[in-house]
Amino acid sequence: MNKKIFITDYIRNPEIEQKIIGSAAQVHCLNSNDEKNFPEEIKDADGLLVWHTKISDFTLKKLNKCKTIIRYGVGYENIDLASVKKYGISFANNPDYGIDEVADTSCALVLNLIRKINLYNNQTRLKIDEFYKNKDKNKINDWQEEVIGLNKLTPIKRTSDHKLGIIGLGKIGTAVALRMKSFKMEIGFYDPYVARGYEKVLNIKRYETLKELASEATIISINAALNNETNKMINDQFIDSLNKDTILINTARGTIIDSLDVIVRGLKSNKLAAVGLDVLPQEPPSKKEILLDSWRNLENSLSDRIIINPHAGYYSSTSIIEMREKVAENMLLSLTGKKLRNIINY
């Protein structure tokens, strides 16, 4: 077993990958988020499996034996594809794991914010805390009256009265559309790369422009890939074009949103009723972010309208294993001279 495969980061025990790759190569974990800390033996790599570490020319020029680099996830903005091409290395991503998990997360955030579950949870906690602190029975007896009071700013609507606009109708966007149809809301999408007629298969509406989607939707779910077209797509101009009290969900890539300040301005102007973010422009976010301060402080009026998750939409005990197995199976194809799956042409 002379061949070597290196897992750059996140995974500390390669037992799943090694079991699949078997005697074709020895799998090693580098446990490094910085390519500049890779050991010299990286030059002996026959393949790299990459999670979040940025891979640039700094590393690629050392890979004299490397035939293949595979990313554990769907996106690959951390890989310098120009240099990958320059050195004749094949690159593939992993586009078909965790689809159900991300779609479920998108839908869960939509339903949570429509029904204001997060808001009621936070406000009920404050009310009960105040009751136990001051022993004021009225704070408990009138707690249902708060339902009406809390809905004066952004009135709660029946789910079937909403219009869901999906940005990006790939595997996950399609899964979101199919799930949300069960709730009888009108569903449309914007994705210029989806074949015409696909909307008829799903019985949903196609928006020809992002502006058209924004003008009609009351809920927007971002399920697009990150690229030059979608990077910073959600900016002040886009937010200004929304209907009042739109719900915005992002389970795709953080930098599709220009900045968290854009979200703050949207919430304060009530263009945004609420936001559910599984991804952020910077992860973890800077402590200087106004949105973060607003979210953390339950007494801040914006807090109830914000849900933030730690980029966890992809995860389940099943999907994490599926992800690692698919990547290892693909690397084994490369090691045994077979055709690589999910090759990114650049």
Q: CATH superfamily of the largest domain, called what?
A: NAD(P)-binding Rossmann-like Domain
User: What is the radius of gyration?
Assistant: 23 Å
Shape: globular
| Major sheet summary line | 7 strands, parallel
CATH topology label of the largest domain = Rossmann fold
What is the number of independent domains? Answer: 2
Mean pLDDT: 93
Q: What is the string of SSEs from the N terminus onward? A: EHEEHEHEHHHHEHEHEHEHEHEHEH
Tell me how many strands there are: 12
- Low-confidence stretches at least 5 residues in length (pLDDT < 50)? none
Number of helices: 14
Distance between the termini: 32 Å
> What is the second-level CATH architecture of the largest domain?
3-Layer(aba) Sandwich
Helix content: 25-40%
In short:
With 346 residues, this protein is an alpha/beta fold. Helices cover 35% and strands 14% of the residues.
Describe the structure.
The structure is a single chain. This protein is α/β, with parallel strands linked by helices and 346 residues long. The protein contains 14 helices and 12 strands. Helix 4 crosses helix 8 (171-180). The strands form 2 sheets. Strands 8-7-6-9-10-11-12 form a 7-stranded parallel sheet, sandwiched between helices. The chain has a 5-stranded parallel sheet with strand order 2-1-3-4-5. It is globular, with a radius of gyration of 23 Å. Helix content is 35%, strand content 14%.
Keyword list:
346 residues; Rossmann fold; 14% strand; five-stranded parallel β-sheet
